[in-house]
Amino acid sequence: ITAAADAWARGAAGLPKPWQPQKPVLPVEGMRNVLITSALPYVNNVPHLGNIIGCVLSADTFARYCRLRNWNTLYVCGTDEYGTATETKAVEEGLTPQEICNKYNAIHADIYRWFDISFDYFGRTTTPYQTTIAQDIFQRLLARGFLLQDTVEQLRCENCQRFLADRFVEGTCPFCSYEEARGDQCDKCGKLINAVELKNPQCKLCRGIPVVKPTQHLFLDLPKLEERLEPWLEQSWATGDWTANARYITRSWIRDGLKPRCITRDLKWGTPVPLDGFHDKVFYVWFDAPIGYLSITANYTDQWEKWWKNPQQ
C-alpha cells in the first residue's frame, strides 16, 4: 500500500516510459516476451457478441494489460478457412469456397476493427505458408513412423460422384431418432456419430441416397505416444495450471486408451496431402487448423520461428 501511495504521489512523470517494440515485433533478449493468440474464428459466418466475448475480447484485454506492463507483446489471430463447413456455405450461397473465404474474412476484419481489437496481425489460414508448414509437419510425422494407412467405410453419393464428408450427410440419429442429424453429430442429443451409422441417410447436395464404399485414409498413430505422454502429463498436472475439466477429459482419453485419429478427408477444399495415392484428398481441418497459429505468424514475419521455436525466451 505504501509503494502504491508513493507511486501515486509521484504522478505520471514517475512512470516508466512505454515500451515501443520494433516492427515486426520479435522476441528481445532480457525482456519478458509474450505471444498471444485467440481461437481462430471460423470464416463462414458473421461474428456476433458471443464470438467476440468468447475468445477475442479476453485475449485483447490480456494483450493490453501486457503492453501496459511494458512486456514485449505480439497478438495474432485470423480466420479458419478450410473444411467442410466452408464448402457447405459456398454451395448455399452459389459461390466458390475461395470467394466465401474472401467475403467473410473481410467482414470479420471490419468488425474487429470496429471493436478496436488490438491485433498486431489478423490473417487467415488459406495461404502458401499454411500449406508449406502443414505439409512439413506431415512429412516429419511420416518419416518418424507416426502415421498409418487404413481402409474406412464411407458414404458415397454416386449422383454427385464424390465421397461425402460428415456435414454433407443428413439422416436419422441412431441414438434418439432425431430426423435431421448431421453425419458427425446429433444436434438434439449431442452424441457424436459416424456417418455410416445414420438411418435413412441423404446427400445434402442432391438429396440422393448414398451407398457405403471403402476408401483409403491416413491416421495419426496416437497409441505409439501413450508411453511418452503419460509421464509428461503427470509432470504437467503437478506443475502446470490445468482446469479440472481439462484434467478430467484428458484422463478419460488415457484411461480408455488412445485411438488412431484420421487426418485426411475426401474433399477439394483444404491443404493437399503430399503423398502418392492421396493427391485427391486434403487434410482434416482439425489437423490443419491449429497449424494456422504458426502460419499466420509466418505471414506477419518471416522470422516467425523466433516466437514458436524459442523456449528460452
From TrEMBL:
The keyword Metal-binding does not apply. The gene is Mars_0. This is Methionine--tRNA ligase, cytoplasmic. InterPro entries: aa-tRNA-synth_I_CS, Met-tRNA_ligase_1, Met-tRNA_synth, Methionyl/Leucyl_tRNA_Synth, MetRS_core, MetRS_Zn, Rossmann-like_a/b/a_fold. Residues 34-311 form the Methionyl/Leucyl tRNA synthetase domain. It holds the Pfam family tRNA-synt_1g. It catalyses: tRNA(Met) + L-methionine + ATP = L-methionyl-tRNA(Met) + AMP + diphosphate. Belongs to the class-I aminoacyl-tRNA synthetase family. One of its GO terms (biological process) is methionyl-tRNA aminoacylation. GO terms for molecular function: ATP binding; methionine-tRNA ligase activity. Transmembrane segments: none annotated. One of its GO terms (cellular component) is aminoacyl-tRNA synthetase multienzyme complex. NCBIfam families: metG (TIGR00398). It comes from Himantopus himantopus. Keywords: Aminoacyl-tRNA synthetase, ATP-binding, Ligase, Nucleotide-binding, Protein biosynthesis. PROSITE patterns: AA_TRNA_LIGASE_I.
